[in-house]
Amino acid sequence: GDSVTQMEGPVTLSEEAFLTINCTYTATGYPSLFWYVQYPGEGLQLLLKATKADDKGSNKGFEATYRKETTSFHLEKGSVQVSDSAVYFCALSFSGGYNKLIFGAGTRLAVHP
Amino acid sequence: GAVVSQHPSRVICKSGTSVKIECRSLDFQATTMFWYRQFPKQSLMLMATSNEGSKATYEQGVEKDKFLINHASLTLSTLTVTSAHPEDSSFYICSARSQLGTDTQYFGPGTRLTVL
Question: Per residue in B59-94, pLDDT tens?
């Protein structure tokens, strides 16, 4: 079945370090891909998305490129801040129908000053 | 825009009682709402999909008689956990998809249920 695999956390970085969180997917067809972020005590927020191969989603300095050949959607940021500390979820869905989201397990990021 | 609220944010109940959780889209109309369950340090697992005015579609392994879902209007869906037991303790999260038909879901802040 369709699934999303993320790198296990926690990921601990110093401020201004480079961030990569790996995400790969298995899907029959061509899904849309998403990164959601969950800050402590808050609900999930859409961080960025890409709807087709080679699309790059970007927001708040974060980027991810939809790579069909490697079935990946890795999240990157050039210089993280303490305020980026959160749990990051990779997800996929198919357009049409109810757009059911399938989530990865989440990766906790902790950024220290 | 695109705010989703949940009420209550936390609830503690005794085993055997029923608990109702509300999910509201505050500034948009949602034809479809989703209910998820999140265990500690784990991902969200979809429980059911509800559409306004029709019966919810439950995921495999989710007991529809235990988790009653009602989507009575375009801005409100409710999840009722009936005859709750300690194993039902979890974080329940709803999301809503706009009537405009985009593939983006907007999430509520979640409800922490603790069954004693």
Answer: 999 999 999 999 888 899 999 999 999 999 999 999
Q: How far apart are CA B16 and CA A87, in angstroms?
A: 33
Helix (H) or strand (E) holding A62: strand A62-65
Q: Are strands B10-13 and B111-115 parallel, antiparallel or unpaired?
A: parallel
- B34 and A100 in contact by Cβ < 8 A? yes
- Of A94, A77, A97, A8, which Cα lies nearest the Cα of B43? A8
Partners of residue A106 in chain B, C-beta under 8 Å = 41-43
CA distance B30 to B17: 29
Vertex B45: Cα angle to A62 and A82 (nearest 5):
30
Asked if A51's CB is within 8 angstroms of B49's CB, the reply is no
Distance CA A95, CA B102 (A): 9
